[in-house]
What does this fold into?
Amino acid sequence: MAERQLRRLRGVGVAAGLVAVVCAGGSGCSGNVDAAEDGRPAVEALHLAADQLVQAGSSKARTSMEMATGGTRVTIRGEGVYDYRRQLGQLKVSLPQDPAGTSDHRPITELLAPGALFMKNRGAGVPADKWVRVETASLADGNLVTGGATDPFAAAELLRGARTATYVGESEVAGTAVRHYRGTADLALAAKDAGAGNRAALGAAAKGFATATVPFDVYLDDEGRIRKVRHRFSFVSGQQEGTVAVASTTLLYDFGVAVDVRLPDDGDIYAGKIAEE
It folds into this structure.
């Protein structure tokens, strides 16, 4: 039931059969640059956030993606680890229960890599021991939404496109003191200033979303690392009138944790047709 709701919700990417499972550059940006508490302009601090994650090396991550369709709110959750230097991550993504409160869907294992998404337990027609590989640049949303979880490093690099930002004040995330910023990012600018691994995917998202402007709230710790970021995406559904809103939240913690992500061999990747469920 939840998968059928997601198919109705999301026209973009349905043809690929994926929804069912369900910005240091840019110093010349214009806009509101309210000073942060430490005296650094807010936009500058956000442009550097992805670089601070690379310096940290790795972290654990929790994700949630909220969508609404037909009066029903659907939340997809993920949990795993990410290596920012190699831009490799692994998440276990859990699909929502159906309205009866039950779910017969096994969690989907996702491997995140530069330019690619690998999924296991993808669903109908895919053998249990095989992976599905998707080129993120081929997706209209650059895999910011399709996989049910936003790649943590892509979420950080999206902030390279911050055009306006306001320092909201001090806050706390999971017991850690943070600085809260609110603003908007431009997907096209983020794509221009992103690293090679995310440039094409963010460029696809800039063209595929209903608007290339993405509102966000982000919380940085004393070292400028993202502890929490929430993006609000908007896209045009091919199966219903108007735009669809998606809120994606990423929590990062336990920086420096050991990460061992191994991508599938060619023989472990499914090459057949993916059935619609």
